[in-house]
């Protein structure tokens, strides 16, 4: 594989979508080919799985069944979208990946971080990011960036705090594979730090 795989992680409202767009634009301006994606990645099977996870038709889905479906969608996304793009030499920018499952299902839902990580590693045939960017913010502030109250009320704040701590713990374990930035800085400052690290990472990959 000759491309470079960048993942953005962080809670709701951290600015992932904002920074993904800015990074893609900056890299394209440098003549690089960028594949911007997010799960389930637009594959037919992935969309069908997404329907099962999100549709009110299946409310009350067992948490383990849900974790398996997320892993299944990730496997399909890795196989059909991410790996082919990397094989072409693209920079792949992905909105959330394996660490989101580890943080949300593994830590916050209590299914066990190691089990959830191993499941995703098996599903993706060990396809892991070259670089994971964690946009860190207090969930009270992150969720407050959205107006919709239902998002705030969907899960207790403690749940979102656990997710935040999980991302930071994963980053601390593998500092060479992570960049943690305060999501409270202004957009341009964050974008510049991300671009610098991505270009440096690509140069040594
Ligand atoms: N650095 C920033 N400072 C303040 N607000 C921001 C910043 N980055 C993004 N926002 C705003 O916060 C909201 C959430 O950003 P978004 O990129 O959608 O986050 P995410 O994709 O992580 O949920 C949007 O209204 C966006 O314009
Ligand atoms: Mg987003």
Can you give a write-up of this model?
By secondary structure, the chain is of the alpha/beta class. The protein has a single domain (4-204), classed as 3-Layer(aba) Sandwich (Rossmann fold), CATH 3.40.50. Helices cover 58% and strands 13% of the residues. It has helices at residues 16-29, 44-54, 63-88, 98-108, 113-123, 139-144, 149-153, 157-173, 187-204, and strands spanning 4-9, 34-38, 91-95, 131-136, 178-182. It has a 5-stranded parallel β-sheet, sandwiched between helices. Helix 4 (98-108) packs antiparallel against helix 5 (113-123). The longest helix has 26 residues, at 63-88. The radius of gyration is 17 Å and the shape is globular. The termini are close together. Bound molecules: adenosine-5'-diphosphate and magnesium ion. Adenosine-5'-diphosphate binds at residues 10, 12-18, 145, 186-187, 190.
What are the defining features of this structure?
alpha/beta; Rossmann fold; binds adenosine-5'-diphosphate; binds magnesium ion
CA gyration radius, whole angstroms: 17 Å
Largest sheet: 5 strands, parallel
**CATH architecture title:** 3-Layer(aba) Sandwich
Q: Indicate the structural class.
A: alpha/beta
What's the CATH C level? Answer: Alpha Beta
State the CATH topology.
Answer: Rossmann fold
Question: How far is it from the N-terminal to the C-terminal residue, by CA?
Answer: 11 Å
In round numbers, the mean pLDDT is 94
Helix content: 55-70%
- Order of the strands making up the biggest sheet: 2-3-1-4-5
Q: How many separate structural domains?
A: 1
Envelope shape: globular
Q: List how many beta strands DSSP finds.
A: 5
What string gives the helices and strands in order?
EHEHHEHHEHHHEH
**CATH homology group:** P-loop containing nucleotide triphosphate hydrolases
Low-confidence parts: none
Ligands bound here? adenosine-5'-diphosphate, magnesium ion
């Amino acid at each position: 594989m000759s491309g470079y795989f960048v993942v953005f992680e962080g809670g709701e409202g951290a600015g992932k979508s904002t920074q993904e767009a800015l990074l893609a634009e900056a890299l394209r301006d440098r003549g690089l080919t960028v594949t911007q994606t997010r799960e389930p990645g637009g594959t037919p099977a992935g969309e069908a799985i997404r329907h099962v996870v999100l549709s009110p038709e299946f409310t009350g889905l067992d948490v383990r069944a849900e974790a398996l479906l997320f892993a299944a969608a990730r496997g399909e996304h890795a196989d059909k979208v991410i790996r082919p793009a990397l094989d072409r030499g693209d920079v792949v920018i992905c909105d959330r990946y394996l660490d989101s499952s580890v943080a949300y299902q593994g830590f916050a839902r209590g299914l066990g971080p190691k089990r959830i990580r191993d499941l995703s590693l098996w599903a993706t045939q060990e396809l892991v990011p070259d670089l994971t960017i964690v946009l860190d913010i207090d969930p009270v502030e992150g969720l407050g960036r959205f107006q919709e109250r239902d998002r705030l009320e969907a899960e207790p704040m403690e749940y979102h705090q656990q997710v935040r701590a999980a991302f930071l713990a994963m980053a601390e374990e593998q500092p060479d594979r992570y960049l943690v930035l305060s999501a409270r800085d202004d957009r341009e400052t964050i974008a510049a730090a991300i671009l610098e690290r991505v270009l440096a990472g690509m140069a040594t990959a």
